[in-house]
Design goal:
The chain has about 100 residues and is of the alpha+beta class. It has a single domain, classed as 2-Layer Sandwich (Zincin-like), CATH 3.30.2010. Helix 1 crosses helix 2.
Length: about 100
């Protein structure tokens, strides 16, 4: 069941990257894990590694997958905006990456 969610989210990521970010964002690993304090998050570092490259992780909280699909996509886009900021050296958070600042 979760594999279908992941396939959908990976396809959505590719489409959103093309439409809103001109395919400028790198590949990421999308996970669905328990995270009761937020709808999702992105790792600051590239924590996933294979033989060729390393990747950021975008996690979407398992507890909130029952929200309308538009809200889930909104969370994905939110995390993609953070990735865009990281890729372009834009500091979009403050207080040890806990809060959004005015640039976000």
């Amino acid at each position: 069941m979760l594999s279908k969610h992941n396939e959908f989210l990976e396809r959505a990521y590719r489409i959103l990257n093309r439409v809103y970010f001109e395919d400028s964002l790198p590949e990421v690993v999308i996970t669905i894990q328990s995270s009761q304090k937020s709808y999702g998050h992105i790792t600051v570092g590239e924590i996933w590694k294979d033989s060729w490259d390393s990747y950021h992780e975008i996690n979407l909280s398992a507890e909130y997958l029952n929200r309308p699909v538009e809200n889930i996509i909104s969370t994905l886009v939110h995390e993609m905006c953070h990735l865009y900021a990281m890729e372009n050296n834009i500091k979009d958070t403050s207080n040890n990456n806990r809060y959004h600042n005015k640039k976000f």
